[in-house]
Specification:
Elements: E1 3-8, H1 10-14, H2 18-27, E2 31-38, H3 42-48, H4 58-65, E3 70-76, H5 80-88, H6 101-105, E4 114-116, H7 120-131
Antiparallel strand pairs: 1-3, 1-4, 2-3
Bound molecules: adenosine-3',5'-cyclic-monophosphate.
Adenosine-3',5'-cyclic-monophosphate binds at residues 52, 57, 61, 91, 109-110, 112, 115.
């Protein structure tokens, strides 16, 4: 069965939106199979977001994701990568589709409350990053 990774980022934790976001995931029929709260170090954040290392917003992104704890959630289900991306909406909360998590909760393009893997391949890497390669649910 397909899995994906969702992160509740610092602005979501700071504004106590963790419960609301988890409720939205569960109400959408997505199954939570693993969850962990972690305060990323600068080095860990740079590794996780290494694909963006040459982008103009990289430094701001690393400062943001390391300023408070985040919640990493592994979700399982049919077509879960695509379904989770639809549920969170586009990167910029102002342009995200109505009723999506980012449209409702996001503050700015950087502080957009949640992250979700963009493909099955990325999901595998990102799940391993937070939960290790030996996944007890497999
Ligand atoms: P995320 O889905 O976690 O993936 C990369 C993150 O970089 C993104 O969410 C935002 O937090 C941030 N980001 C992406 N594009 C921009 C941008 N144009 N300006 C600032 N931050 C951005």
């Amino acid at each position: 069965m397909e899995s994906t990774l969702l992160l509740i980022k610092p602005d979501g934790v700071e504004r106590k939106l963790v419960g609301d976001i988890i409720k939205k995931l569960e109400n959408s029929g997505l199954e939570i199979i693993n969850m962990r709260m972690v305060h990323l170090t600068q080095d860990e954040a740079e590794k996780f977001y290494s694909i963006h290392k040459d982008k103009f917003f990289f430094r701001e992104l690393i400062r943001y994701v390391t300023r408070e704890k985040i919640v990493a959630i592994e979700l399982k289900g049919k077509d879960v990568v695509r379904r989770t991306r639809l549920l969170i909406g586009g990167t910029d909360p102002k342009e995200a589709e109505e009723e999506t998590i980012r449209a409702i909760c996001g503050i700015s393009k950087t502080e957009n409350t949640v992250h979700a893997s963009d493909s099955k391949k990325t999901a595998k890497r990102e799940i391993e990053f937070f939960f290790g390669s030996r996944n007890i649910h497999e």
